[in-house]
Specification:
- The protein is mainly β.
- The protein contains no helices and 13 strands.
- The chain is globular and about 40 Å long.
């Protein structure tokens, strides 16, 4: 079992920044990738950013160059630095743990409870 707890969400004006944190605990050795997903009301959950145990990162095109995912293995933490936020970034952001093999990323095994990010105009 892996437990994920997100924090850092809130209300921010367009152009502002937020830093989301995800604390992982439990059998973290069973995963080799961490990701941030988001879901707006009425829409499907979408991948925002992902980082592997080796440090490889991937970003959705709409957030690339604005968001940065990072990790601190010693603290079992994953972060998402969000800059130049836009109203369309408004969503519930979820931390997820998953496995990958080669270029294949499997369905996330564990999810956090989510943290609300609201970007005002």
């Amino acid at each position: 079992q892996v437990q994920l707890v997100e924090s850092g969400g809130g209300l921010v004006q367009a152009g502002g920044s937020l830093r989301l944190s995800c604390a992982a605990s439990g059998s973290i050795a069973s995963i080799n990738a961490m990701a941030w997903y988001r879901q707006a009301p009425g829409k499907q959950r979408e991948l925002v950013a992902r980082i592997t145990s080796g440090g490889t990162t991937n970003y959705a095109d709409v957030v690339k160059d604005r968001f940065t995912i990072s990790r601190d293995n010693a603290k079992n933490m994953v972060y998402l630095q969000m800059n130049s936020l836009k109203p369309e970034d408004t969503a519930v952001y979820y931390c997820a743990a998953q496995r990958f093999s080669g270029s294949t990323y499997f369905t996330p095994r564990y999810w956090g409870q989510g943290t609300q990010v609201t970007v005002s105009s």
